[in-house]
Amino acid sequence: MSHLIQVVVHTPAHSQVARTLTYRSELPLTAGTLVRVPLGTRELLGVVWDDHTDRASRNSDQGIPAEKLRSVAGSLSDIAPLTIAWRQLITFAASYYQRSLGEVALAALPPSLRDLNAQQLARRLRRHAKAADPGLPNDSCTFNQLSLTSEQTLAIERFQREDGPFLLFGSTGSGKTEVYLRCVQSVLSSNATAQAIVMVPEINLTPQLEARFIARFQPLFGDKSVVSLHSGMTPAQRLKSWLGAHSGAARIVLGTRMTIFASLPDLKLIIVDEEHDPSYKSQEGARYSARDLAVYRGRLEGAKVMLGSATPSMESWHHSRPLDEGGRYVRLLMPSRIGATGGLAITGGALPLVRRVDMNRQLKGCVISPPLLDAITQRVARGEQSLVFLNRRGYAPVLHCTDCDWKSQCPHCSAYQVFHKIDRTLRCHHCGYTERVPRACPACGNPDIAPMGRGTERLEEHLADLLASVRRPNSVSALQPEGEPTCIARIDADSTKLKGELQARLAQVHSGEVDVLVGTQMIAKGHDFRRITLVAAINPDGALFSSDFRAPERLFGLLMQAAGRAGRDGDISSHSEMWLQTFHPKHPLFAALKRHDYPGFAAEQLIERKQAGMPPFSFQALVRAEARTQAVAQGFLTAASAAATEMRDAAHLTQNITLYPAVPMSMQRVANVERAQMLIESPSRTALQHFLTAWQTVLHSTRQQPVGQGLIRWAMDVDPLAI
Ligand code: ADP
Ligand code: ZN
Ligand code: ZN
Fold first, then answer.
1. Is residue 345 in contact with ligand 1, taking CB distance under 6 Å?
2. Ligand 2 center to 441 CA (angstroms)
């Protein structure tokens, strides 16, 4: 007798293949078992699914007589079945983000499981099983327990007492990481199989955090207790971490957003550090938010959830309003910075003084205003460091001919090619198209084409000129009694392309070798620089008047984070400063920043959002369409929108739903592809979900019609971050 088995395999996002496929198997296979199944001429990895988690899968292959069904090729019996909770998480994510179950389920598994053939995998697993001894706690290296600040103590006590979800609202340098460590420790030591997920936004920040977690927890829970998961790892490393988590041997899984889909048999805690960070939202495939899924998964599995930030997202901040106003998260406050000298638990390290330079009063074309230059010079002379921040890489954003007005437009995109002086190229940052810099204007032959505007490369060069005669105090070399020249370093995507380059530059900064660090937002986040006493934002105005309603939130967060890099050492924090060069010194955003007043800023933002009916007071989705022409891209969206009114039960489904007209995206053309989008909005999340699910079918069928011809692709983004 053979059994009929429902299996989820990877199916293309918009294929109309049923959610699960039916196979025959000689043995009964429990749901969650990993199997290999034939599909067409290939053999694919699949997961046995069942009706408990997925009602819709029942009878999915109706019509195929049982004897025609193909058989499961084999099961990966060395790997325990995935739990029902994991399958429910996947089912939810697929349905909420409007993608196919197969795509989400298979993307959530380590690539090696999909890509290796049966023999290769068996070999890999045997090797892993041999090494799977959890390792003994190694108590030879016990750590010094810091004595906690009273704010940390209170936060941890509430975490232990209450269920959460928690929003840890702690200033930069308030000691949030120590709170995470203690919360993990308290959950893991009270239950011998309990596991925790700790997420960070950037791969670059994982090694730092990993080192701290390993130092703290390997002595307590064994060498195998801490593993990482992020896209910078090799497939073999990822498989190893994944199996560690899945088998329960790893107690702590650290990583980037993909970690939210890791399989953990006894998950009891999820921590999301810097929860406001946009990189928690995936920008391709299923556009999931790992932060939002963390909250969902916590509820599903009875795990506590802690989100942490100095500048929470408006959504999380709003959810953590007082209970009697409808709040759902517990807000934990740590407003004070740690004045860390010699590990003493005293709070009161000062936040930097914020100074605004009114650029309307500076000479035209001035890049570094004289008072800022003065302040930087003083720091160099005192042996302190400055961080100068400009969110634009390259030498200049555009090359320009003053005679005929030619500009270095990318031939394939609605964007300029950026001038990179180092290798004398013009590079499009959107499609990658690269050319040598022309000797003369391609339009009129004028040899005098000039860079317009400024990126980090040019800023670095400019600062080197300005600081050429400034000497730093003489530290190493007795040969230069008058001091050494200023050392300037740049950190951005260009200067850190090669492996290890970023680590090397950061080490230079930490060692004190660097006096002035120039960079993009890469340097504004997370790093614990000790000797920086000045942070300057050269041109932060761009985001003030952006059409994206989240731009002010992002700018405020970025500037707060950047300010947080200054004065982290209590000894010198008393004179640390954050400088803003702006044409709008009176802008309320900068005023709130000067007061270090996130709650004040957030309150204003939320009032505006409420009046305008924006998230978190409404819910949004975007459908994006790509084609060779705008007309086709927009035509598809418009037709699908019109067809929504003809859906079965349309009157009910479109109630409370606003479908906006199709418009070109702000980056309208990339690599010769025209892009359009349509916004869908509703005051009710449920109403939006029901509508989107029904409308999917309409979008699929619209694509099959004449109006869908020439469409390259379309995709839905639920809870989009950028409009
Ligand atoms: P945040 O993540 O909130 O910006 P960190 O966790 O990086 O802050 O803490 C800032 C610094 O304070 C770190 O160097 C950390 O080791 C130190 N620190 C944290 N808690 C304490 C404490 N209780 N006593 C002394 N130093 C502490
Ligand atoms: Zn010209
Ligand atoms: Zn381009």
1. yes
2. 5
* Per-residue pLDDT at 463 exceeds 90: yes
Q: Give the separation between CA 612 and CA 548, rounded to whole angstroms.
A: 13
Q: Give the pTM.
A: 0.90
Residue 147 Cα: closest atom of ligand 1:
23
Q: For residue 624, which amino acid is it?
A: R
396-432 residue pLDDT tens: 999 999 999 999 999 999 999 999 998 899 999 999 9
The domain locations on the chain are 3-129, 150-341, 351-393+455-609, 396-452, 619-718
Proportion of the chain in helix, strand, coil states, percent, rounded to 5: 35, 25, 40
Rounded Cα gap, residues 192 and 207, in angstroms? 26
The residue contributing the CA closest to ligand 1 atom 15 is 175
Lowest mean pLDDT segment, chosen from 120-124, 650-654, 678-682, 699-703:
120-124
For residue 41 the two structure tokens come to: 């001429």
CATH class of 3-129: alpha beta
Whole-angstrom Cα distance, residue 534 to residue 386?
A: 5
The tokens of 519 are what?
């960079």
Contact status, residue 534 vs residue 387, Cβ threshold 8 Å: yes
Q: Which amino acid is at 2?
A: S
Q: Which CATH superfamily is 619-718 part of? A: ACT domain (3.30.70.260)
351-393+455-609 adopts what CATH topology? Rossmann fold (3.40.50)
Ligand 3 centre to CA of 434 (Å) is 9
Contact 338, 349 (CB under 8 A): yes
- Nearest-ligand number for the alpha carbon of 209: 1
How far out from the chain centre does Cα 226 lie? 22
**CA–CA gap between residue 709 and residue 705 (Å, rounded):** 7
CA distance 391 to 519: 7
Q: How far apart are CA 533 and CA 119, in angstroms?
A: 57
Residue position matching structure tokens 């990966």: 76
Distance CA 292, CA 316 (A): 9
Intrachain domains 150-341 and 619-718 with the same fold: no
Main-chain phi, psi angles of 99, to 5 degrees: -125, 170
Q: Cα of 367 to ligand 2 centre, how many Å? A: 26
Residues forming a β-bridge with 358: 582
Question: Treating both helix axes as pointing N-terminal to C-terminal, what angle do 290-301 and 84-96 enclose, rounded to 10 degrees?
Answer: 140
Q: What is the pLDDT of residues 626-684, one digit of tens each?
A: 999 999 999 999 999 999 988 888 888 889 999 999 999 989 999 999 999 999 999 99
What is the C-alpha separation between 80 and 126, in angstroms, rounded?
14
Q: Are 382 and 512 in contact (CB under 8 A)?
A: no
CA distance 330 to 475: 49
Reference 307, options 338, 326, 289, 332; nearest CA is 332
pLDDT of residue 277: 93
CATH superfamily of the domain spanning 150-341: P-loop containing nucleotide triphosphate hydrolases (3.40.50.300)
Tokens of 193: 């199989």
Contact 517, 510 (CB under 8 A): no
Task: Tell me the Cα Rg of the chain.
Answer: 28
- Nearest ligand 1 atom to the CA of 343 is 25
CB within 8 Å of 113: residues ≥ 6 apart: 34, 45, 76, 121, 239, 242
